[in-house]
Design a protein that fits this description.
Structural class: alpha+beta
Strand content: 15-25%
Helix content: 10-25%
Largest sheet: 8 strands, antiparallel
Strand order of the largest sheet: 1-2-12-9-14-7-6-3
Order of helices and strands: EEHEEEEHHHEEEHEEEEEH
Radius of gyration: 18 Å
Oligomer: single chain
Shape: globular
Number of strands: 14
Length: about 270
């Protein structure tokens, strides 16, 4: 992980009304996933409440924030046939939160329609930073993803060095699920409603490890070796499409922990493209 947090971040100070109220929700629990040891694969249960999930999705819906999901190729963002989902980058609170409290009335007025989203993402940034044991400056801006039936993201890696580029230096990925997908046991089919996250290179002899989304839960893994910093090739994963014959939409939120402080390393592709 990046350096442990020593003190509260000075990048932004929140004076907002609490939007992320997880006080009544069960505390998150973490369990290691058998077979996922090479990348410290862990399942995190009860990280987000249903109300927080609703706020996140609504933030994208109200401003029509969904666009074709791009990929980073040689450090450049482009749309490719290997990814058919749609994405919604959330507003980066470290940059915009101080502007909400500026003396410049015109600037504050322009941001007023986005105030709730900025405050929501800042509170989540603080919570995730605390959970991961890092400073807020290492948490990349969040990105929601949406998969309609049949939409997918073929096998890929979240760390730029896997592709030989210096962008997207992400030691950790924390993928949060914002919807439920039925499992094969629940809908009595061979692969359920699809929509799961699959790690083919883990437990490869038995077909890989598949994580079925449960709203509010998440899955956490390393992209690089803790000691050497070398990219872990077995961290490749795939977003399997929700089944065409099911009326199921998959929502998730990408959370990446960066190697360097975002503000000091403004790698735009790192938080707009995956």
């Amino acid at each position: 992980l990046p350096p442990s947090r020593q003190s509260s971040s000075s990048t932004a100070t929140s004076t907002a009304t609490l939007l992320v109220d997880e006080s009544s929700a069960p505390q998150p629990t973490i369990a290691s996933i058998p077979g996922g040891e090479p990348i410290s694969l862990q399942y995190v249960q009860n990280f987000l409440s249903p109300s927080t999930v609703d706020q996140l999705i609504e933030s994208c819906n109200v401003r029509n924030g969904w666009t074709s999901s791009p990929q980073s190729v040689n450090g450049q963002s482009m749309v490719k046939a290997t990814r058919t989902s749609r994405s919604c980058p959330l507003i980066w609170p470290q940059l915009y939160l101080p502007m909400l409290h500026t003396d410049d009335a015109s600037k504050a007025a322009k941001l007023a329609p986005l105030k709730s989203e900025i405050e929501l993402t800042w509170e989540l940034t603080q919570r995730i930073a605390s959970f991961m044991g890092v400073e807020e400056e290492y948490v990349e801006p969040f990105q929601l993803v949406r998969y309609l039936p049949g939409e997918f993201y073929r096998e890929h890696h979240d760390h730029g060095s896997y592709y030989g580029v210096h962008t997207e230096q992400r030691p950790w990925t924390f993928l949060l699920f914002l919807s439920d997908i039925p499992s094969s046991q629940e809908d009595n089919s061979s692969d359920g409603g699809g929509g799961y996250t699959k790690f083919r290179a883990l437990e490869e002899e038995s077909g890989g490890i598949a994580i079925v989304p449960r709203m509010g839960d998440g899955v956490l893994w390393r992209n690089v070796d803790e000691e050497t910093g070398k990219v872990l090739d077995v961290a490749v994963h795939e977003a399997v499409p929700p089944a065409d014959d099911k009326e199921v939409v998959k929502y998730a939120m990408n959370v990446w922990i960066a190697k360097d402080k975002i503000m000091e390393n403004m790698d735009v592709s790192a938080y707009r493209t995956q």
